[in-house]
Amino acid sequence: MSDRPARWTQATVYPDMWADPDDDPRNSEGPDPEGELATLLDYLTNYRLTLRMKCAGLNAEQLARRSVPPSTMSLLGLVRHLAEVERDWRNWLTDADPLPKLYGKRDADFDGAVAEQAVVDAAYADLEREQAATDAALAEFPDLGERAGKDGVSIRSLMVHRIEEYARHCGQADLLRECVDGRVGQ
C-alpha cells in the first residue's frame, strides 16, 4: 500500500481544473481590465486568490506539512513567506531604514511554519496586513515608470516582480496541495 493520496478534483467540466468555471472566483464577467496598471493589479489579485484557494479546507497539520526532505517548504510556509516579502517590497520604495523582518532570521518564515492553529491564524493575519500596507504604499505611485527608493526601482518592475513571486509560489502550492490530499487543478 502506498501512503500517497489519490488524485482528485472538485471540477466536473474539466477534470484537470481546481473548480468548475462557474464556481471559480477568479473568473469575471466582462472585458479585460483597461490599462497596464489595472491589468497588473488584476493578475496580482488572481494569484493572491489562487494561493488562498490552494490552502482552503486544510487543517493546521496539513498546511504545515513539509514537501520532501530536506525541504522546509509547506503551504503555511508559503503564506508566511509571502507576508515577509510583501513587507520587504515596501523597503524598496523608501530611503528610510528597512522594516524589521516579521519572523526573524533568514528562513524563519518556513522554519516557523508549525502545525498550530495560532500560527496559521497569525500567518493569514500577517499576510492580509502586509498586502494591504504594500498596496497602500504602491498606490502613492500611480505612474508605473516612476522610480522610488534608494536603488531607484521602477514601480512597473516592482509590480511585475510581485506577480512573478506569487505565480512561482502558486505553482509550488499546486504540488504541495497534491502531496497533502491529492487535489489537483489549474
From TrEMBL:
Region (Disordered): 1-35
InterPro entries (alphabetical): DinB/YfiT-like (IPR034660), MST-like (IPR007061)
Pfam families linked: MST
Name of the protein: DinB family protein
Organism: Kitasatospora acidiphila
Organism lineage: Bacteria, Bacillati, Actinomycetota, Actinomycetes, Kitasatosporales
